[in-house]
Every structure is written in C-alpha cells, then in structure tokens.
C-alpha cells in the first residue's frame, strides 16, 4: 500500500511540475493592490467607540491590462460591509 501511494504522489508531481515551471518563467509586470476599509463609529449615550479598520493585499500580475481588469472585477463584486470602502490600484514595474 505504501508503494502505491508513493507512485500516485510521484505521478501527480510529474503532471504539475511542468506547468509550474512554465508559470515561473513569465515576468511579473505589475502588482495589484486591493484596499478595503470599514468605518465603524458607534455612539451610545455618552460613550463613543471607533472601530475603523483598513486592510491591504498585494498580488503580482503578468500584465498591466490584466491588473486593471481584475481590479475592476473586484470592485463590481458586492462587499459584505455596508459602511466601507473598496479601491484598487496597479503598481507597474519598469
């Protein structure tokens, strides 16, 4: 049973390895930066609480056009937060 599992793992590795090597040869030309923020001010009586939050994620992209297209697609998807903002920008590498 152990030899069979080893052969299955080896065959899967041989299938995945050539495609990952081809991906590694492509040049990263831009970075997609996604920014999300939530405004969470709460006023109850005389106590005021602020729970504002901002998150940022960066993803490498193969082209500037692909970066812009993916950023626009991300903006069109609905957000889970009503009082928040979403924005993106592309950092182009020269």
Number of strands: 5
Taken in chain order, the helices and strands follow as: HEEEEHE
Distance between the termini: 52 Å
Number of helices: 2
* Strand arrangement in the largest pleated sheet: 4-1-5
Give the oligomer, counting copies of the same chain as homo and different chains as hetero.
single chain
Mean pLDDT: 76
| Major sheet description | 3 strands, antiparallel
The low-confidence runs, each spanning 5 or more residues with pLDDT under 50, are none
Q: What is the helix content? A: 25-40%
What best-fitting shape do the alpha-carbon axes yield?
flat
What is the radius of gyration?
22 Å
Strand content: 35-45%
Structural class: alpha+beta
Walk me through the topology.
Blueprint: H1 2-25, E1 30-38, E2 42-44, E3 47-49, E4 53-61, H2 64-76, E5 84-92
Antiparallel strand pairs: 1-4, 1-5, 2-3
């Amino acid at each position: 049973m152990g030899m069979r599992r080893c052969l299955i793992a080896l065959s899967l590795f041989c299938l995945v390895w050539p495609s990952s090597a081809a991906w590694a040869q492509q040049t990263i030309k831009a970075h997609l930066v996604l920014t999300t923020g939530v405004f969470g001010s709460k006023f109850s009586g005389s106590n005021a609480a602020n729970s504002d939050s901002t998150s940022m994620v960066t993803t490498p992209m193969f082209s500037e056009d692909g970066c812009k297209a993916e950023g626009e697609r991300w903006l069109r998807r609905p957000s889970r937060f009503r009082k928040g903002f979403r924005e993106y920008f592309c950092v182009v590498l020269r």
